[in-house]
Design goal:
heterodimer; A: alpha+beta; Immunoglobulin-like; 6-stranded mixed sheet; globular; B: 75 residues; elongated
Chain lengths: 899, 75
């Protein structure tokens, strides 16, 4: 036997009903009879009998139900991301988008929700449950508690996803478009103009209840086992320590999202005040915890499977025990590392950073212990089947994803990374290359036990591994590369530079490869259920059964599955000396890094939460993040009020005081040649930033970095840097790449420019639109807003209808003239804001000529004030179904006139 | 499974041990993570903000491999 000394094997096919000495309550009898009636009828159909294992014990049946449900949500989650990527790809290629913004951003939300909770977490609960019961030889009890957990979990997915068409006017008719989570107060009626259905919050509450029931079910069984085996077992197997960690962490983590969701729900109905920042902190106690709970899948897989295939115990049980304890204690404490850019107290930022560095320790112990467990195993005694290959991938993937974690955790560095695809890459490296890879290792090792059959096709298993490894690695790599450029996460709209377009296309390719790869797996599962060789386990230990199941994924197995006697030759003190040496090095390094990064962390965190002591002559920007534009009030050498435009002098110090009216926002200027500016802006709180404007005059893109609803992509502002005296052209700006800010709009000559609007209401797919340059004197350029650009995503026509031609009908009925003006406006720096030079009505379907004689200076062209837009396609918006509105600016840009 | 596998066994004994393969996995994964951190080398705050952490990770990876190589086998 290996490290699983206490494990015993219950017959995989035995009916494991608990002996009944008392009649159960009538309601339970009713449920039992109903279940039996359904089961016996469905079991007559071979498909259902095989897929749901309807002739097996209830624990196997319910586990299969969870596996099937998780695959169902996984498939939907894959469809979601495929839908998202098709639209991102279409935008990159300048092709028409076929989904509405509401659907596009819902796809992203639902991808995260379905994959994380419907798929990954449900699979984790299913696998941990069956492995726990099997390895401990437990007789599962409280069947209906388990059923309730599964029912609630899947019901929560339905409630969160929408549409729920039983009563469209009452139930949720919109998909939630809340990023992939919610960020208080986004979605809350009265506090956000994008309003989610209350079913969204009820879904979170149901999910919390589901997982807590599961955790208490597991705990009850463990305690029962512990009581009956007290004194008979020396220790709990190492892998089970991490299953127990999940059992402990689930209620601790979920109680916080239960609280924040209940709070949001109360606010939704106008009960009680809201504190968005506190609510976010509360949410992230869960948001962080859930990732670590899922991370327990590969950790458990390593501790469970590596000793089995190495045919020897883990290197150090005591190290594993310490890792489990530290992991469990630290995980619930790390909420604030997701909120480094918010105005939280600097001490809390520093403390969280220190604790987050400390949580490296259990991972360091685990990976050293697991690696050392393989030391001494001869190459001929180790089989590279699907189980061990996925373990290897999870090992590498955890390194790739986990070792970028310290980067994110360093506040000074996080400012560059926080809102970019770097974070998404870090997350997917862990979610796919670590968590899902570890999950597949467990599935390949355990599924035959559920199916009662060995894997049908080793070749399909191999193809699955190879294509999955390629797809996931490529996907992570191109997210990383886009993140390094500063590309925002969660945004459909991005700069169409050749490099970005190329990376986005490659990302789509690898997403498709990743999805196609799973078809090999699903095919193998179905073939196994219907054609796989029957699994016989008589006389085999648990370890031998696992090896036998894994061996069926190898085309030419060579390594015997039998246990071999293991006689310990290397004494524990020698092994533990190596462990201690390694952990000492890790602790020393953590302390060193902490000391080196603490001063900047405290400085940066203080700067976000405290008004700046700005040098004399600074420009003061009072920003309010609206949904979906920035109100800008300026004082200092430049005085004025603007929308989405911030005007400062070259090299001037800029002091920002920012808050949000409505959903949370983010002020982000992704300079790469200068320090990046990045703060999160929250209602009822002030965030601050003090930075030095570029010394080179130009137009610097400043997107809202926090997702705030389906027109988030248009929520971009510009930092217009003008010379302190005299005039300057943009040649220096162009030659230095605009200080490396990827969001700078492209520059083109005004005279002869022909700006074409797209269906997102942007000129030339860019927001702000292209920066036009001209010399003083006559300036002439053209706009064109094609009728083909008018549709449900175009905020210019405030008519939303299920009739696909509803918007166009409105335009025709109004003689193609919309109630807005396009024009040229001079930027006045002495308090008058934008001063009109020339305007004309916005006419659709006709070329509009802009002609003016301009003096040297900086101007804003286009539609320069936000357009109010309400999205209500079927007239079904209400406070119960969700609703969507905002003020959007997209058809504008800067006109730079200089000698 | 008790089947005669001498030729296949011989074949499988060629190549690297699982310990080495997992070591390679560590190197590949860690190299990618370090590369991603270092790709920010041209950001002005890199030296003060990012370098200490990246250096710490790099030293940890080297220490991991060295101590792992030095440590006694799991016999």
């Amino acid at each position: 036997m290996t490290g699983n000394e206490t494990a015993t094997v219950s017959s995989a096919t035995a009916e494991a009903e608990a002996p009944v000495f008392e009649r159960p309550p009538a309601i339970i009898q009713f449920f039992d009879r109903t279940e039996e009636s359904i089961r016996s009828r469905l079991a007559k159909l071979t498909f259902f009998q095989r897929v749901f294992q309807l002739d097996r014990d209830w624990m196997t049946r319910i586990t299969m139900l969870m596996v099937v449900a998780s695959v169902f949500w996984g498939v939907l989650g894959a469809v979601d991301i495929f839908g998202w990527r098709t639209q991102v790809t279409a935008f990159a290629l300048g092709q028409p988008l076929h989904l509405s913004n509401q659907e596009i951003y819902s796809s992203l939300t639902l991808h995260g929700i379905r994959m994380l909770f419907g798929f990954a977490q449900q699979l984790e609960l299913a696998l941990f449950g069956i492995i726990f019961v099997t390895a401990f030889g437990l007789t599962p009890r409280h069947k209906w508690a388990y059923y309730v957990s599964v029912l609630l979990l899947n019901l929560s997915m339905v409630m969160m996803e929408g549409p729920f068409y039983l009563l469209p006017q009452f139930n949720d008719n919109y998909f939630p478009a809340l990023g992939w989570y919610f960020y208080s107060p986004l979605g809350i009626r009265g506090l956000s103009e994008y309003v989610a259905s209350p079913l969204w919050y009820l879904g979170w509450i149901a999910l919390s209840a589901a997982t807590m029931v599961w955790a208490f079910w597991m705990l009850a069984h463990f305690l029962e086992w512990w009581k009956s085996h007290r004194g008979q077992v020396r220790r709990v197997p190492a892998f089970a320590l991490f299953v127990l960690a999940a059992v402990v962490l689930i209620p601790i983590s979920y109680v916080t999202v239960l609280a924040s969701s209940a709070w949001d729900l109360f606010n939704y109905f106008g009960v009680g005040p809201v504190n968005p920042l506190l609510n976010q902190v509360l949410f992230w106690f869960f948001g962080h915890g859930i990732v670590y709970i899922l991370f327990l899948i590969p950790i458990t897989a390593f501790y469970f499977l590596v000793p089995i295939f190495a045919k020897r115990p883990i290197y150090s049980y005591r190290a594993a025990f310490a890792a489990a304890i530290i992991f469990t204690v630290l995980t619930p404490l790390l909420s604030i590392h997701h909120l480094y850019l918010t105005p939280v107290p600097p001490w809390s930022t520093w403390l969280t950073m220190a604790l987050t560095f400390l949580i490296i320790i259990p991972s360091a112990i685990t990976f050293f212990t697991i690696w050392m467990t393989t030391k001494g195993v001869r190459k001929g005694d180790w089989q590279w089947n699907a189980v061990t290959l996925f373990l290897l991938l999870a090992f590498a993937g955890t390194m790739a994803g986990g070792l970028t974690g310290p980067d994110n955790n360093t506040l000074g560095f996080d400012i560059d990374l926080h809102n970019t695809l770097f974070i998404v890459s870090h997350f997917h490296a862990l979610a796919l290359l670590s968590i899902a890879a570890g999950g597949f290792a467990v599935v390949y090792a355990a599924f035959p036990l559920l199916a009662g059959r060995l894997w049908y096709s080793p070749r399909l298993a191999q193809a699955h591994f190879v294509s999955t490894a390629i797809g996931w690695s490529g996907l992570v790599m191109f997210m990383d590369l886009l993140g390094s450029d500063g590309i925002l996460r969660r945004s459909l709209i991005f700069p169409l530079t050749p490099a970005v377009v190329q990376d986005q296309l490659w990302l789509t390719v690898f997403v498709i490869v990743s999805i196609v790869a799973q078809l090999f797996f699903v095919g193998n599962v179905l073939l196994t259920l219907f054609k796989g060789e029957l699994l016989t386990v008589q006389g085999l230990s648990l370890d031998e059964i696992v090896r036998k199941m894994a061996q069926s994924t190898h085309p030419k197995p060579t390594v015997p599955i039998a246990d071999v006697p293991f006689v310990r030759r290397t004494p524990r003190p020698r092994r533990e000396r190596a462990e201690r040496t390694w952990i000492t090095v890790v602790v020393v390094l953590i302390v060193g890094v902490l000391l080196a990064t603490s001063p900047l962390t405290l400085t940066d965190s203080t700067a976000i939460g405290t008004p700046a002591d700005a040098p004399a002559g600074s420009e003061y920007l009072n920003l309010v993040s609206n949904q979906y534009f920035w109100s800008v009030g300026e004082s200092g050498p430049i005085v004025g009020s603007f929308s989405d435009v911030m005007v400062v002098h070259a090299g001037q110090w800029v002091a920002v005081n920012a808050t949000a009216s409505g959903a949370t926002g983010g002020f982000y200027i992704p300079f790469r040649n200068l320090p990046t500016v990045d703060i999160q802006v929250i209602p009822y709180a002030m965030s601050y930033s003090l930075f030095r404007a570029p010394s080179v005059p130009g137009v610097y893109g400043a997107p809202d970095s926090e997702y705030n609803g389906p027109w988030f992509g248009q929520d971009m502002s510009a930092l217009v840097v003008i010379p302190a005296t005299g005039t300057a052209n943009l040649s220096a700006y162009e030659s230095n790449g605009g200080e490396g800010d990827i969001y700078n709009p492209p520059v083109m000559s005004a005279n002869g420019a022909f700006l074409i609007a797209d269906q997102e209401g942007l000129f030339d797919n860019s927001v702000p639109g292209p920066t036009l340059t001209a010399v003083p004197g006559p300036v002439s350029f053209q706009y064109y807003i094609p009728t083909s650009s008018i549709g449900i995503d175009n905020y210019l026509v405030n008519v939303t209808s299920t009739d696909p031609s509803g918007q166009l009908d409105y335009v025709i009925a109004h003689h193609y003239i919309l109630p807005y003006d396009l024009g040229i406006y001079a930027i006045n720096t002495t308090g008058r804001g934008l001063v009109s030079v020339t305007t004309q009505p916005l006419k659709v379907g006709s070329v509009l000529y802009e002609n003016a004689t301009l003096a040297a200076g900086v101007y804003v062209y286009g539609l320069v004030s936000p357009v109010s837009y309400v999205y209500n396609p079927a007239g079904e918006s209400s406070w119960m179904t969700g609703s969507q509105q905002g003020q959007i600016m997209g058809l504008w840009g800067i006109l730079w006139v200089s000698p | 499974m008790g089947e005669p596998v001498s030729a296949a066994v011989e074949s499988s004994r060629r190549g690297m041990t699982p310990f080495v393969w997992f070591g390679v996995a560590i190197i590949v994964g860690a190299a990618w993570a370090l590369f991603m951190g270092l790709s920010y080398y041209n950001v002005p705050t890199f030296t003060t903000a990012a370098l200490p952490t990246i250096a710490g990770v790099a030293v940890a990876v080297v220490a991991f491999l060295v101590i792992g190589a030095w440590a006694p086998a799991n016999d």
